[in-house]
Design brief:
This protein has about 170 residues and is of the alpha+beta class. The protein has 3 helices and 7 strands, in the order αβββββββαα. The structure holds nickel (II) ion.
Amino acid sequence: MTVRTVIKFPNPNLKKISEPVTVFDENLKQLVQDMFETMYEDKGIGLAAPQIDVHKQIVVIDTSEDKSEQRVIINPRFILEEGETGIEEGCLSVPLDYRAYVKRFEHVIVECQNEKGETYQIDAHDLLAICIQHELDHLKGVLFIDYLSSLKRNLLLSKIKKEERRNRK
Ligand code: NI
């Protein structure tokens, strides 16, 4: 297993649309394992393939505290979205540990495939539902900060640039 490099905003590759997975082979299983390893290394609860610059519809999620609830979500589509909730979200691809409130559905059902290509559904509420929506957004090139006003996003961008300049010195 290999910890991969997570690309960060404003890297334009985060905006790319991910392609469906068509081949379910050993390489895919290896990639999924690397994604879990990378997510745990960075203490995340979810990671989407585009975050490691692989533009395929693959997401891994584990909202447990002991690595016991690994979920692999490939080629997903929402079949139900209802209710309303929200928390202060963060993202491994957004620098400075930036967090902001995002409105999400409280209950979602997703139909997807696992790494073996088997189709299954996830019926999720609360944190898991939020995490799924956040990660599936990555597959469409959407970051949680895209829901903020452009004023807030530009403020964040200037903070990131400032931090980069400081680190270069
Ligand atoms: Ni994210």
